[in-house]
Amino acid sequence: MDWTLKALLAAATVWLVMAVARRSGRRWAGVAAALPTITAPTLAWLVCERGVGFAVNAAIAGVSACAMLAFFSLGYALAARRGGKRCALLCGLAGALVLAWPAFEASTRLSEALMLGLSCSALALFGIPRTAHEAPARTHPRCALTCAALAAAGLTALAATAGPALGSFATGLLSSLPVISAAVVMVEHTQGGHRAAANFLHGYAWGLFGKAAFGTAFVLLAPRVGAPAALALACACAGLMSLVAPRPLRLSAPARPGYPRHGLE
Questions:
Q1: pTM
Q2: Is 259 a member of any domain?
Q3: Which of 16, 35, 105, 256 is the most exposed place for a label (fewest CB within 10 A)?
Q4: 112-121 per-position pLDDT tens digit
């Protein structure tokens, strides 16, 4: 399938998810950003072009990469309390790089990948500072979300087209990079300060459990029920896991006169 079509479909998926999420507050936007909106279409292309076996290996790598995403969110949230968004972004990327080698080593077995991904996600979930109050956004970040969707589209095309030549781990890693979360958290950091960024990343850390559930379900089901059914069931697992949110995610910012209630509006 042409890579342009892959990019357009991924962009539409990302934009739809973020358009819905911006009505529900920063924490739920973080949860939505962690959904496998890039990973799922990438696996679909890989099944068509490289077979189920290669897609399964890439999915295991994606589960393992959740550890890197968790440390990205933790590093960004902790650095944002003392520095600007550029410093926080660099610290987040540094945190992801620290887990690059462990993620690579764990990417060959689902049990090891799942253990690493879940443990790091739990550490990020409890380590990111949280607050029940959010500063209202001053502007509607439509342009920023459009840029995030286009970046995600390009990454999907790259992962599905060039990734197979680099191996299953590279494909799984490329399809799991925090493109959407990095773009949106910098917008939130600029508009609402480090507390807004932390609230978004707290939701993102919880959403990684859904992302890990997606990869695990696909790996276990694809060889048995076929790739299309496995993808559908895996997406359902990710959605259900994301909806069963802990209590802090249900907290919302109090409305202020003259300001919108939701974080992304």
A1: 0.79
A2: no
A3: 256
A4: 999 999 999 9
